[in-house]
Predict the 3D structure of the following.
Amino acid sequence: MIDLLPHIINGLTLGLLFALIALGFTLIVGVMEVINLAHGSLFALGAYFALTVIGGGWFSGTPFGAWWLSLPPGLRYVLALAIGPALAGLCGMLLELCLRPTYGKPPLYGLLLTFGAALVVEELIRLVWGTGEQNLALPQAINSAFLLNGMIFSTYRFFAAGFSIVAIAAVWLFLERTSTGAVIKAGAHDSEMVRALGYDLAKLRLLVFGFGAALAGLAGVVMVPIWGLRPHVGVDIVIPAFLIIVIGGVGSFWGAVIAALLVGLAMGITGAYAAAWATMSMYLLLIAVLGFRSRGLLGRKSALEN
Amino acid sequence: MISLSDIPARPAAWITLPMIVLATVLLATPWLLPAVGLYQYLGIEIAIWIIFALGFNLLFGYTGLHSFGHGAYLGIGAYAFGLFQHNIAVSLWGGLLAAVLAAGVAGALVGAFLSHRRGIYYALLTIGFGQIFWFLAMKLHRVTGGEDGLLGIPRPPLTLGPWQVALTDNLALFYFAAVLLMLVAVLGWRLANSPFGRVLQAIRQNETRARFVGYEVWRFKWAVFTLSAMLAGLAGSLLAMAQQSAYPDVMSLHQSGLVVMMVLVGGGLVSFWGPVLGVVFYFVARDVLGGLTETWLLWYGLIFMAMVMLRPEGLAGMLHGLSRRRPPLPTAATAPATEAV
């Protein structure tokens, strides 16, 4: 008999990480009804920008670079945690500008455009940062292991899981408790009315996309020490994110969080018995859920079905 | 923007001008390719992908169902062909049949699940199923050879009654693929212009209305998905012969996306022949841009993005626009040219 407890704990932390990845994705889908296949690429961009910030990037070799690398690693990590997502957010805004001609057309066009964007970003990453696998240098404080109940757990994994709980709570509070959040949610339901009330919808969409992209970048910086950084990490990551959105119900915030935890648990428990097949469990979960509920766990009818 | 439905219904001729043009170009390809500095094998690749793309467009352009996992059926065809040669008999027809049937069965099963879905959920599920097949190809090591692929697939000779032609030469294989391609093109054209094809277009325009008119929409969606999977399987068997191996690579999301990109760039949304243009454009871009720069995929991706933003009707739509803006010429020769698009 396998002791399932550590696998369940691993599954739950994995689920929280998935939820962090899916957070920006679900925001963009919910508000703009765009399935952003480039979400994973923004994730990768955030991580690569962080890599450059932590390692000094193009300045390593210059006096400025030498001074930069003499800063404590913890400080550089915190700066990377801010700058990486911010730059990813800017890239997201650029993508939103490209998406504008597709508004009002079938959702396929948004899907296609972001697919092309994912391809372009991946190639750009190869061009700028090279094709090899790299990794972020983590500060010592969060990069260790501890014993719990006779099992070894990595501190960083728990740091990342805690981080995603905070991020999920912050986004939820923003959407539910601030007036900007209210406008964003209203824009998702009735864009005409929001425009009639005098809000600049174009600016709103730009901001939402930038915010969602920054969340993707943030997930990238936090997640990549666990998964490794390679040019196609974006494609590897967008697939679970996107299965989670579908399982949870497109556009549903809590649906995505629940689905992420479910997927994490399924992968953790499958991993206990047949590690090579863990990835398969999320596809089976998708088929099982959609077999019974065609709009996912908490999904509602949306324009995406037309 | 024009769409397929703007093209007036006309009695579908068995042979149309674009077919003659395509057949002529195919006949001449072995001479054309070296003349522009390209190699024979490219012709086979293009013919295979045209078969795949024509079948895919019945689903994508005609019915408006967006599959992002169609590489799976190409891969299943390739594996089925290889496994047939390895385990049952070295036979061309047997292998082709096995590939078409295997891809057809997989497509029919997935299609049965998909056909009650609409819009984005349809597209998302095709990705899910495509990933499952890809994953199986990677993990069922004993059957598929895992990441290394299925190696040493023979090219069995073509036997027609007493005649036997070896296909070991790339030229012979190209002509074989070209004949299959013409068959697929002629039959596909007939089908697209049949009442069945009209129902497919009705589903694309308004699925609810098509249902209310009295069509059992899901049956049509299922049939066209299965058919396009079978054609993908046929293309896959040729791919297995061309490469003499089968890899899980073609089943990945990336490769499945490629056929979508080819069809859209070519103008599959507005034209039966668009996918042909798209495939040729892709391979020429790969070899010409690829010769100039290592990052050709970056440029191809940018071209694709620009197309989606500005000209989603693709190359075929642009040609169609040109031919319509031109004042009508008195000669009859130009009239069928517009029919092409």
The beta strands of chain A are 145-148, 151-154. The radius of gyration of chain A is 20 Å.
